[in-house]
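Reopening: structure tokens for the zinc ion complex, inputs below.
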Amino acid sequence: MRVDYRKSLNRDTANLSSLSALVLNADYRPLSYFPLSLWSWQDSIKAAFLDRVDVVSEYDRVVRSPSRAIRVPSVVVLRNYVKPAKSAAFTRFNLFLRDEFACQYCGEQGELTFDHVVPRSKGGKTNWSNVVAACARCNHQKGARLISECGFRLRRLPYEPSQMQLLNQGRKFPPNHLHRSWVDFLYWDAKLEE
Ligand SMILES: [Zn+2]
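Re-run output (same inputs, fresh job):
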């Protein structure tokens, strides 16, 4: 069989940018599930060179420097454990993650906004325990009323999540692309805990 070398070379070149490495903390758990902690091939090779990570698994793809050839890492583990912050930053993304990207009144997962459970006009604060993800429709219907005034029910009382709780929430949202070498590190402990 004749191999079209040029064609496969081109394909390899095009794919190189998509060869991300899954980044594990020193305890072999992903640094972050959602978004999944990934590094570009350049960053993972650089970190390996600097002895900041150990390479756990590699792609078949080889990149060459003037002095040597290196296989592109697919999974790397940090040598030094990064301690997750105890409390999670109060950000739009983290709030959506806590609420699993669903309206806390009707459960819809479309385009989301935020709702102050106790409206600001009634003294409601902008914090973890008073802001929830809400769809535009519920947000609009509720307006500046209390939930008791409009018959709405919260699916879950808003709470301040720990960094660990958010990490676990993120596990429920697997990315579109999972390289086979990543799967063991992403989901083995999920099964044990359920
Ligand atoms: Zn809704």
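The chain has a mean pLDDT of 87. The two ends are 50 Å apart (CA to CA). Marking as resolved unless the reporter disagrees.
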